[in-house]
């Protein structure tokens, strides 16, 4: 953007979530109850994760979490009995948080966590939902995305609380030989414990992760562009950079008053921000590394970051709008032989859908006389209309 804009994508994570708390965890589909799991949210608000004694850490991307809400009692009698032995039954529902998540609206997953007291449950439920309101995190730049993945690797520790080397090699596994990745790790002093193939998270800094990334996945496309723009020199002059930003990067349809062209002062600000060579900064030059840092920053976003949270005028007649609608809303998965769910109605409405389908049929067999929701003649499961 020609006008300087400070994009603040971070949200304030409540202290209780940063400090962490112990919960018991269970799932509806399983009779297994995990006891005394330490749950936390990282300080950047990227991940919701938990640690259990003697087990690998489990990390969940908060972008995929839909909601933290109150829950009822466990369906499984054994889970209910064990939870009753660990706390008062009268407060069990109030102490339980239902976490729903999924990468899309087709595959819905959930689990339940039970706090030690009602106040902790309330603080965590409200805290998680507050963090989930941060929509800006979905518009972060490539460099921040790399930081996010680095944080994921640092949190995904094994039972000895070390980063498995295989998790790092898997990150760069697409088309890159594993031996090459391991050699690059050794060159950067990140070989770790060779016998156990694990690495201390404190040694794996973001700076070293970036160096590893650029070593294994060099941006040859940016390098070729830089050579072309610089005239095969080791730097871009201020004049050449201004020309690139105004003639190639800028949308020519933009209004010149509202969206002014890049000028010498603005470009000098960019050079001072992304260049590390003091001599280049003083002479108005940008190196190839600084050029890459600029292209991967918020300054080079494909959308106007100051407008991503603007809302449309919703006071016009209904016929003036396109309506976000849903077909076969109740189905999870495919149309033929799929599973019906009431949960999906809640999620599509929370996602902004304003037209849903209720496919009503007369119940048969055990459900005779009771209206049901299902896809007729398609071997799908059904749910009660009520």
Automatic annotation (TrEMBL):
GO terms for molecular function: phosphatidylinositol-4,5-bisphosphate phospholipase C activity. GO terms for biological process: lipid catabolic process; phosphatidylinositol metabolic process; phosphatidylinositol-mediated signaling; release of sequestered calcium ion into cytosol. Residues 312-386 form the Phosphatidylinositol-specific phospholipase C X domain. SUPFAM superfamilies: EF-hand (SSF47473), PH domain-like (SSF50729), PLC-like phosphodiesterases (SSF51695). The keyword Nucleotide-binding does not apply. The keyword Zinc does not apply. It is an enzyme of class 3 (hydrolase). It catalyses: a 1,2-diacyl-sn-glycero-3-phospho-(1D-myo-inositol-4,5-bisphosphate) + H2O = 1D-myo-inositol 1,4,5-trisphosphate + a 1,2-diacyl-sn-glycerol + H(+). PROSITE patterns: PIPLC_X_DOMAIN. Pfam families: PH_14, PI-PLC-X, PLCB1-4-like_EFh. Its EC number is 3.1.4.11. Keywords: Hydrolase, Lipid degradation, Lipid metabolism, Transducer. This is Phosphoinositide phospholipase C.
